[in-house]
Amino acid sequence: MNTFVSFLLAARPKTLPAGIVPVWAGCMIVWKMRGFWDMRLAALTLASALCIQIACNFFNDAIDFRKSADTAKRQGPKRMTASGQLSARTVQVVGALFLLGACVAAWPLIELRGWPMLAIGIPSLFFAYGYTGGPWPLAYKGLAEVFVVLFFGLVAVMGTVFVQVGWSSGDAMLYAAAGMVGVQCGLLSAVMVSVNNIRDRAEDASSGKRTLAVRLGDAKSRRLACSFIVATYVTMPHVSKALGGIQLSWYWLPLILLAGVLMLKILRTPADKRMNGVLALAALHLVAFVATLACS
Question: Where are the bilayer-spanning segments (predicted)?
Fold first, then answer.
């Protein structure tokens, strides 16, 4: 395996929809409710968000290896540090460079929108490392799903809307819609995390990584992942109203069928390498959800 491929795999490209979709959703909300969106600001927001997510993936690769959380029992995609393709130091340096890239991309947004961008950006930079590293790593404490709902959902969508339009006294409805869609995006991203943790539950339990799947057990963690999907669709009438009465018509049926298939797969697929296909399906469902919402 050449070095470029090793770096590409360490970035975990299959997980990147979780960073792309919230920015897309935020721009979609602004377009639906205001009739415009700024492509340059969207590109800078997306670049910063992806850099933070990729940095987080690199840090995870190195830190999980150092904590012996990646073992020969691993059922997920090969980790570059654990497999010896890249050194832990190299992986962490690349992660730090991506954080620097996130700062560079965000600088024009800070100049435009001021201190609120720092209030969003600084915690995001910290948790890119603190997700698995630092004195209180979230992923090791069973808080990964909560983190994803907040940062890859609520903060990312509402932050994108703020970048696009700023804030004025007449923006309450716009931000209410952004908050609802943000929670939906976060829940569907959390499904991906839950599937990943269900697959790795036995390995994580043996290495002391107390994910939510380890804490709840196999059956309850599967039901929890399905509840995230159900909650997303149960809230659709409220989201429709907030976005100005979008039509929940027949072309939502393929998406609902996809959601049903995904839930069946989550409930029935053994916790081994076959869960990797479920993870890919969860990512597809996340993208398809926002695409359908955008077309409504």
Answer: 86-109, 115-134, 146-167, 173-193, 224-243, 249-266, 278-294
